Amino acid sequence: MGAGSRIVWPVRIQRPDEPLTLDDDLVVAAENLPVLSHLPGGVFDLVYMDPPFNTGRAQARARIEVTHAPGARGPGARTGFGGRRYQSRLLERLSYEDAFDDYLAFLEPRLRAARDLLAAHGTLYFHIDYREAHYCKLLLDEIFGRDAFLNELIWAYDYGAKPRRRWPAKHDTILVYARVPGAHHFDAEAVEREPYMAPGLVGPEKAARGKRPTDVWFHTIVATNGREKTGYPTQKPEGVLRRIVAASSRPGGWCLDPFAGSGTLGAVCAALGRRYVLVDSSPTAVEVMRARLGGSAAPSPGSVLPVAGQQRLDTVT
Ligand SMILES: C[S@@+](CC[C@H](N)C(=O)[O-])C[C@H]1O[C@@H](n2cnc3c(N)ncnc32)[C@H](O)[C@@H]1O
Known about the structure:
The chain is of the alpha/beta class. The chain has two domains: 26-58 and 97-306, Rossmann fold, CATH 3.40.50; 61-95, no CATH class. It is built from seven helices and twelve strands.
């Protein structure tokens, strides 16, 4: 980003004539649409989009601290294994809104902008669930062209409540589109192999090597006490993003997440040696990303946050 240029939160770009240039990894605290129009076109290997799913209710998580407290009583007191008493305390509530009057009208300009940001060899991964997946597929076909459609990935997990009057919905859908049909980068060998479902049906050598993943991915959600857990609502597992980044971006290539949340794409890019731009309008999300990705300065609303060694902080008014 050029010296003196600014982004003002939430939507106004101070210097419309001055584009964002990519010289280091960026976390941008802003509404994503104007940011997308200020990024250089045709340079991203990968755009991963994980928007709110239009569930009709706010997505919220409470962060709770639980301590061993033998005499605990009243609100927050619990009994654990072996009758041990614990006291829980609410640390913070993280949330974002997830209800839209016209969901596709919200998505369309962002998808069009994302397409224009992709390099000719670039790929879009659009993450959604069963409620809107089919409407989004039609919209994406219109924007990218049906011949650019590569995959419908199914990420299957097994966690949470299970209704008894229908099949419990335990999968998300990730729709994959090439910027230019046939020109997309895809490195099948860079993706970690997984065990065959029936290793007895293939020879021992093949069974030991494992198989390349198909378009159905069984992967746990982020473990409640796991290393990567940030507490941010709807945080996606790094394992799912790792496959996407490894297959569809080149080492050193630029990746973009306009709905970055806790910054999962950034964490994976940093681990795999890719560059990233992350955008989120929620100050809480930006705080979480700073803690996760190692920002070197406290963010203020609308700031472009330096991460991963970036020296400069472009401030806001
Ligand atoms: C499903 S969450 C993303 C979760 C993320 N993939 C992760 O692993 O943590 C969607 C995010 O989009 C953000 N968001 C929603 N509308 C936005 C907009 N117009 N501009 C920027 N961010 C937005 C929300 O604040 C939320 O953090």
